[in-house]
Amino acid sequence: MSQLQNAMIILVKTFNDYARKEGKKDMLNKGEVKTLLEKELLLQEAKNPGEVDKFIKNLDRDSDSEVDFSEFMVLVARLACMIHDFSKK
Predict the structure, then answer these.
(1) Residue 80: which domain range?
(2) I need a surface site. Which of 3, 59, 72, 81 has the fewest CB within 10 A?
(3) Among candidates 83, 84, 32, 20, which has minimal Cα distance to 59?
(4) Which of 39, 45, 37, 47 is nearest to 72 (CA)?
(5) How far is residue 4's CA from residue 57's CA, in Å, rounded to a whole number?
(6) Is the C-alpha dihedral spanning 78, 83, 87, 89 positive or negative?
(7) pTM
(8) What is the chain's pLDDT, residue by residue, as a tens digit (89 residues)?
């Protein structure tokens, strides 16, 4: 498999691993988002409940207070763009 195919498989697996911990198996609830942000992205802001609420609000396009896979991918794409921009400097 190519690097890109492997990356996509890892993204899907990572989302599913966190989404399947509680509640709906295809959605991330607030606790799952918090854990994912802390463990996968090493974001210290995730320790602050208000910051987690902001992340969810910014990602939650359908306002259901959960993050589905396509909403999660928006976060991944934004972060990838930031990393790309930073790497050009």
Answers:
(1) 3-87
(2) 3
(3) 32
(4) 37
(5) 29
(6) positive
(7) 0.82
(8) 999 999 999 999 999 999 988 878 899 998 898 899 888 887 776 677 787 788 788 888 898 989 999 999 998 998 889 888 888 87
Q: How many domains does the chain have?
A: 1
The CATH number given to whatever domain includes residue 82 is 1.10.238.10
Report the candidate in 39, 27, 38 with the shortest Cα–Cα distance to residue 65. 27
The residue to which tokens 């991330």 are assigned: 28
Question: How far is it, in rounded angstroms, from Cα 20 to Cα 35?
Answer: 12
Q: Which of 20, 55, 64 is nearest to 34 (CA)?
A: 55
